[in-house]
Sequence to fold (198 residues):
Amino acid sequence: MNRSDINVTQYDWNSRHGDAFLETQDSFNEGDFAMANGPLTRRGILKLSGGVFVLTAAGAGSILTGSDTAIAGEIYTGLLGGTGAGGYDVVSYHTAGRAVKGKRGYTAEWKGATWRFSSKENRDAFQANPARYAPQYGGHCAYAAAQDYKAKGDPNQWNIVNGKLYLNFNASIKRRWEQDIPGYIAAGDRNWPGLAGS
Fold:
């Protein structure tokens, strides 16, 4: 697999979906993945939806299957269908300094996703200024955005940097991202406009 291929870091597709479409190449630390019939292109679309995923194959140029836009959209909604930040209260990261699950009774709609909150006050704060509280890169993995691709963001793997919330794929990727936060943020900010609509 060459460097122009996407580097989907540390996602064990095989243990979740079998190896019919993907198989690991090398170790999870390297995280390179390929489809059974060729490598995934850098701009390939990754997404999960109830065990169904969509991929654009290199050379095939077509989507294989699926209907949800979990990773393909601007806001990552794959952890809890249609829900931003996996249903976690994005205001709580800023106010309580921890990840708090939102409740169905306190929701707001923003950018095509439903956002859940642990309290009416947090919902109202979000509605007054959603861009202040929403995770950067739409809740996609900050490290992946810096590498010019999209991957899920885990609401339990987070950082607040200069008042902005960043999610990462998993604990290992979060540690990698923390080794050069300013550099990865600068790269993610450069790449995100091109990734946001893909």
In short: The CA atoms of residues 52 and 170 lie 21 Å apart. The mean pLDDT is 73.
